[in-house]
Each structure stands twice: as structure tokens, then as C-alpha cells.
Amino acid sequence: MVDKLKALAEPNRLEILRLISHEELPAGEIARHFNATRPAISQHLHVLLDAGLIEERREGTRRLYRLRAEGFDEVRSMLKEFWDVRLQALKQKVEQKQRTQRRRHGRK
Amino acid sequence: MVDKLKALAEPNRLEILRLISHEELPAGEIARHFNATRPAISQHLHVLLDAGLIEERREGTRRLYRLRAEGFDEVRSMLKEFWDVRLQALKQKVEQKQRTQRRRHGRK
DNA sequence: TTCTTACGTAAGCAATCACTTACATTTGTG
DNA sequence: CACAAATGTAAGTGATTGCTTACGTAAGAA
After folding, report:
1. Mean pLDDT per 10-residue segment, chain B (108 residues)
2. 10 Å Cβ neighbour count for A59?
3. What is the per-residue pLDDT for B106?
4. Which of B18, B37, B45, B83 is the most buried (most CB within 10 A)?
5. Which of B1, B3, B4, B5 to mutate to test the interface with A (most CBs of A within 10 A)?
6. How many domains are contained in chain A?
7. End-to-end Cα distance, chain B
């Protein structure tokens, strides 16, 4: 989980993901979109591969990279959990308040 | 955006977020859940604050922290975008294939 | 086989990160 | 006011990160 987040938390890697989100691209062509050197991009691709956010396919001497959507599921559901837990907490707070108010009315 | 992702990409900070996701907690009580020293946690809280993922409320000498759900929206929608763009790409691919096949049928 | 193309890998380096200890600040209490 | 409690801030340090240059490797072309 943290590996995925760490992989996402870098501007060049985010840009790589955007680049290959709509089409499979070879490493060289990806690198050409950046100011950094080709090895730098190659290393970023490796990080993204390890995190399971992209996948690689070899075709002759080229290596084609594409997004791996399933890789994002874990991150997605983690965020959803934060959202859900918070909503649940708010809900309980409201219900608690309602109970208190009803009790006060009863006493009066 | 990258700030939020970087803030999320650290185990202790993730745990802090989980801790305060259902209840507002003072800094000291948060720190007590960890092996790290209190200053370390204080620094993590600062990172999370800067990223807009949590908010602080002062009460006497204590500082209470709670999740800031809006802070997660940007991350959420970024992930959604990756998902959507990929779906769109897949859709176009299928339609392309269908057109090709129809053409072949026509020629025969 | 030799050369070229498209890559990855290794080593080294400066910047950033997460942590610790020591100190400063703010608020309530006797 | 003096003191205690709760917390942040500063400075220093080892580990990790992202980058570069130099080198290694695998696949197709001559």
C-alpha cells in the first residue's frame, strides 16, 4: 500500500502515468517527453512496475508500458474507507445529539 | 497534489489518519499510539496539516486534530481520472475493432 | 559475426526525509 | 508570580531518493 502511494508521490511518475493512461508506449518515447535523461525515466518505470501501477510487454528490442488499472484499486478503497469511517462518525454524532435532546425534552 | 500524495506515502502518517478518522484527538494521545517520540508525531501532524488532509482546533493548552475530508477530494478525482481515461481508451479500442470487422465483412 | 537500436543496471552524489535530543512557547493553577 | 502540562520548534544525523554518467545486454539488420 505504502509502495503504491510512494510511487504516486513523484511528479515525473505521475506524468508517466498520465502519458500511458490512454495508450501503450515504449520506454524511449516516454522518456522523450521529459527533460530528465532516459535512465532516470527507466528507473521511474521500474518503481511503477514494482508498485503494480503499470505493466510491461516486450516487443523485439522495445518495451511497451501501459497502465494497470487493478493496481489502483487498493489506493482507491483505502481513500473510500477514510471517507466512509468519517461519515459513520458524523452520523453517530448526530444521533447522539438527537438522543440527548429528546432526553432533555422528557425531563421538562 | 503531490504534497497530498507525499503526505499519504508514509506509514505513521497513514496510521495517524486512521486514528483520527472516527474521532477528534489531542496531539499527545495520538503520539501515545506510536513508538516514535512525541516531536516526531508533531512533525507528521504538521505535514498532514500543510497537505490539507487534517485540521487543528485549539482548546486550552491542547490541540485537537481531525480528518479534513475535503482534502481527499483532489486525490480521489485524480485516481478517478486515470480510471476513466483508461476505460475510454478501451472503449475506443473495441469500437475500432468493430469497425474493422464490419469493413472486412463488407469486402467479402 | 559485427553493428546498431532500444533498452536496463551500476555507481556515485546532492537533496530530502524521518527521527532524536534539547529548548521554547502557551495556557491553566496554586 | 511560579510552576506544571501540553505541545511546537531547532539542530543534527543516518537513511532514502532522484538524478547523472558510464557501462552492460538483448534483438534485429547488414
Report:
1. 97 97 96 97 98 97 96 93 75 74 54
2. 9
3. 47
4. B45
5. B5
6. 2
7. 53
Could you tell me if B102 and B79 lie in one domain? yes
- B19 and B58 inside one domain: yes
User: Which residues surround strand D, with CB < 7 Å?
Assistant: A 6, 9-10, 12, 35-37, 39-40, 43-44, 47, 60-61; B 26-29, 38-39, 42-43, 45-46, 56, 61-63
Q: Which ranges of chain A have pLDDT less than 50?
A: 106-108
What residues in A contact B89, CB-CB < 8 Å?
21-23
- Verify if strand C has an atom below 7 Å from the CB of B103: no
A67 and A100 assigned to the same domain: no
pLDDT at site A107: 42
Q: Are both B9 and B53 inside the same structural domain?
A: yes
Q: Do A40 and A22 lie in a common domain?
A: yes
DSSP A4-73: HHHHHSSHHHHHHHHHTTSS-EEHHHHHHTSSS-HHHHHHHHHHHHHTTSEEEEEETTEEEEEE-GGGGH
**How much is the pTM?**
0.85
